[in-house]
């Protein structure tokens, strides 16, 4: 499987003088596996929604006023007191 091109750009922020074997492995072989090991070693994590999950859809605003008005009207009809003579 061919690795993503962006992984190579991450190497720019890796300390090239580091003696850490994880850093050296990632510089030598920038694969996803080495990238994830490097992130874990340095306590880095992805931002939310960067792991390939679909973007969170925003639900459209619903005009609740007609529904609320209807419910309040029906409630008042049920709770009204009638005086009959």
How do you describe this structure in short?
With 85 residues, the protein is mainly α. It has helices at 5-10, 21-28, 32-41, 65-79. The chain is built from 4 helices and no strands.
The helix/strand order is HHHH
Oligomeric composition of the shown chains = single chain
Q: Percent of residues in beta strands?
A: under 5%
Helix fraction bin = 40-55%
How far apart lie the N and C ends?
A: 87 Å
- Count of helical stretches: 4
Radius of gyration: 30 Å
How would you classify the helix and strand content by structural class?
A: mainly alpha
> What is the makeup of the main sheet?
none
Description:
The chain is 46% helix and 0% strand. By secondary structure, it is mainly α. It has a domain at 1-54. Helix 2 packs antiparallel against helix 3. The longest helix is centred in the last third of the chain and has 15 residues, at 65-79. The termini are far apart.
Write the layout of secondary structure elements.
Elements: H1 5-10, H2 21-28, H3 32-41, H4 65-79
